[in-house]
Amino acid sequence: MTTFGFIGTGHLGSMLVKKFVETGSIEAEEILASNRTPEKAELLAEATGIRPTNSRVVAELSDVIFICVRPLEVRDVLSELAYLLNSEKLVISVAADVSLENMRALCSARLARAFPSMASEKLQGVTLLAFGENATTEDQRLITGLFHTIGKAVEVEENDFGILADLTSSAPGYFAALMREFVLAAERREIPPELAERLVKQTLLGTALLLEEESFAGLIKSVATKGGITEAGVKIIQREAPSMFDQLFQATEARHEQVKKKINGLR
Questions:
Q1: What is the tens place of the pLDDT at every residue in 185-217?
Q2: Could you confirm whether domain 171-266 is CATH 1.10.3730.10?
Q3: pLDDT band at 247, cuts 50/70/90?
């Protein structure tokens, strides 16, 4: 029986544990979990049936270990447990900006990176995957299969993680921010905010379903008939949005670079 370990049970670590157990992709008794605040791991155990313990035991007894701590904490975790993280262990980091190279310098385990999305909580998220040179074909199959149970798993070039994370992991926040501005604009025109938000949310859900069978361009063409009201609104978006999204990518790329410099400075 494969034993799975989770070091870090914050929002992301807890979400992964809960969803893997709920979907049956990992049995609760196969999971060990630890947290810097033990009470958090114990609460997760009460909710899911997993086994709470400390990080040393997780690293010692687990075959597959998920590192679910903040990026600037990964170095300390791997350094502390390096003597246990040998080539018999498979370590998967879900931390942004901690590269496979960073991890390889700290332990000799087989390595992978996974970058999930909050949308995985609804089993609809996209998880970006990248594998270390020492990850086996079976490792890749195992990790890909696990994340497919909570959404879609896509292997990509590690160098593209930053910009692709904007399209996947960060996107729910961006979409919510855009839709909130949409609602606020309606509110400025004396539409009750609760009504506007309810209507936009329901329309957004329906739009997502339409997009399962249609491209963005195709849906725009279907809704924005030539000379119509929707076309007038689409033209405004097409005129104003490019600059906004270019600035968004510039800002997030700059932030990624700041974090990477801090990580590399700790090595």
A1: 999 999 999 999 999 999 999 999 999 999 999
A2: yes
A3: very high
Determine which helix (DSSP H) or strand (DSSP E) holds 142, and give its type and residue range.
Answer: helix 137-148
Q: Which residues are CB-neighbours of 163 under 8 A, at least 6 positions away?
A: 249, 252, 253
How far is it, in rounded angstroms, from Cα 217 to Cα 227? 17
Q: Chain centroid to CA 264: how far?
A: 22
d(CA 187, CA 196): 7
Band the pLDDT of 267: cuts 50, 70, 90: very low
- Give the global pTM: 0.91
**Sign of CA pseudo-dihedral 76, 77, 83, 88:** negative
Is residue 62 a contact partner of residue 90, using CB atoms and an 8 Å limit? no
Give the residue range(s) of CATH 1.10.3730.10 domains in the chain: 171-266
CB half-sphere exposure, 40, CA atoms < 13 A? 17
Burial of 243 (0-12, 13-18, 19+ CB in 10 A): exposed
Check residue 27 and give its pLDDT: 97
Protein fold of 4-156: Rossmann fold (3.40.50)
Looking at the chain, the domain(s) classified CATH 3.40.50.720 span 4-156
